[in-house]
Amino acid sequence: MPDLTNDFSWSRSRDNVFSECKRRYFYHYYGAWGGWEAGATEEVRRLYVLKQLASRQMWAGRVVHDAIEMALHIFGAGRDVPVEPFIADVVQRMRGDWRSSRDGRYRDNPKTLALFEHEYALDLKPEVWQALSRNVTACLRNFFRLPLLAEIRTTAAEHWSIEHWSKVLDFEGTPIWIAPDFGFWTDEGRLALIDWKTGAADPDAAAFQLGCYALYARDMLGVEPEKVDLLEVNLREPTVTPHRWDDARLADIREQLRLSIRGMKAYLADPDANVAVIDAFERTEELRICRWCNFRVVCRPDL
Ligand code: SF4
Fold first, then answer.
1. H or E element: which one contains 169?
2. Which CATH number fits domain 152-262: 3.30.300, 3.40.1720, 1.25.40, 3.80.10?
3. If you measure from the C-alpha of residue 302 to the centroid of ligand 1, how many angstroms do you get, rounded to a whole number?
4. 154: nearest Cα among 198, 192, 195
5. Per-residue pLDDT tens for 34-93?
6. What atom of ligand 1 comes closest to residue 295's alpha carbon?
7. Which atom of ligand 1 sits closest to the CA of residue 26?
8. What is the location of CATH 3.30.300 in the chain?
């Protein structure tokens, strides 16, 4: 297998980390690089393990997304899903993963669940964890009851995109990672792209994300914005919010992407070779961000 190279690419999560703290961005995308290799230095390995940490809310969101993906595969194969046993199985697996994280297995197996709360030994009451599994259960029950799901199931499964039709898109020479959670063609011949949400709404972030999906539809699938329905599905409520896009809004998204990519590259010592030097990446002044940062123990241990 050829050696992996740390090539520059753009994603929404990368953009988020970059906006929050430049130092964290460095650790995540450069400092931790290669930490999976047997010969990695202790420091790089440490950063790599920290990079994998997920907050409990992120974990719950991932569990819901994975379960939905699995359910849609089953529906797509023409079978039914027994809802309550299915959800009970998801919660059961969550318990196993939680125990694995609590026991610190991720230090030897960084691909297993690694919760921020365990690494930083947060003293959380059992009710907090119970609320988390209740939230996952509620989101999944809501998913199975959605009229939108019933509508999806009346359409031809061969046109569904359960994972992602494609993962990486070339944007003016930069690979960018954009993938809707789910896509299908409606009976009216429109392309519906869905974003499943399990957390609190953030209208600005959602608008940029959905705009990126509109770009994906246009540039990857060749579908014009006026033929696309972007659906933001909040599984906690549950609500389905449709968004429409147009060429002008798409132009704004392209400009936002250009600015983001330019900003990231401006920090590099060698943008062509994607080489970064830690000193160029300042620490944030906002200590509330540090509180929940995976890299706190190496960057601001005094906190
Ligand atoms: S601890 Fe704070 S300053 Fe350091 S990387 Fe994290 S967010 Fe940035």
1. strand 168-171
2. 3.30.300
3. 12
4. 192
5. 999 999 999 999 999 999 999 999 999 999 999 999 999 999 999 999 999 999 999 999
6. 6
7. 5
8. 152-262
